[in-house]
TrEMBL record:
Source organism: Putridiphycobacter roseus
Domain called Thioredoxin: residue spans: 3-177
Gene Ontology biological process terms from the UniProt entry: cell redox homeostasis; cellular response to stress; hydrogen peroxide catabolic process; response to oxidative stress
GO cellular component terms, A-Z: cytosol
Catalytic residue positions: C51
Keywords in alphabetical order: Cytoplasm, Disulfide bond, Oxidoreductase, Peroxidase, Redox-active center
Annotated protein name in UniProt: Thioredoxin peroxidase
Subcellular location: Cytoplasm
InterPro entries, per the entry: AhpC/TSA (IPR000866), Peroxiredoxin (IPR050217), Peroxiredoxin_AhpC-typ (IPR024706), Peroxiredoxin_C (IPR019479), Thioredoxin-like_sf (IPR036249), Thioredoxin_domain (IPR013766)
Family the entry assigns: Belongs to the peroxiredoxin family. AhpC/Prx1 subfamily.
Gene Ontology MF: a single term: thioredoxin peroxidase activity
Superkingdom, taxonomy of origin: Bacteria
SUPFAM superfamilies in the cross-refs: Thioredoxin-like
Role according to the record: Thiol-specific peroxidase that catalyzes the reduction of hydrogen peroxide and organic hydroperoxides to water and alcohols, respectively. Plays a role in cell protection against oxidative stress by detoxifying peroxides.
Amino acid sequence: MAVLVGKKAPSFTAPAVVNGGEVIENFSLDQYIGKNHVVLFFYPKDFTFVCPSELHAFQAKLEEFEKRGTKVVACSTDTQESHWGWLQLSKNDGGIKGVKYPIIADTNKTISDAFDVLVGEYDFDEFGRLTASDDMIAYRGLFLIDKEGIVRHQVVNDLPLGRNVDEVIRMVDALQFVEENGEVCPANWNAGDSGMTATHEGVADYLAKN
């Protein structure tokens, strides 16, 4: 599994469904560089069981991300038509109607491969085309990307393990605290807590108070 933290997030252009139903053909995270932090999360498949719980959970906290100037973007290896169809179904019917953030269609699997979250046995032929012997879907990878396009946090869950959206918000808060204050965030840090300076004296002072 590749560690992308500290590196430029892979660049891509792909179809996506935005605003709950509008299909655009050339979606890219490059539009956010210099403007927004980005939470990019991958999920395995449309029309499944754990996945809609996650997509609805991110939508429920979307205002919290927006208050922090952070864009939420989802991605799976399904087609944009599949995303669109799933968005038309209500929550009671297993759908994700009401989700407004972009959902990328990684149908050629290259985005999932670039972020190293692609599940299954696959290889590339002599023309650089991905070839697979089984269904190719994405692990539950999540990447927090700063305004310069650098990955600052990543976590990858196995397929049956859903994520905690409040923890994602905590990591956004931690990153923005570090950027704004020049201090570091100790264990179990939450918004409103003090940070500490990255010196022996700073660590000693923090531990003495906590």
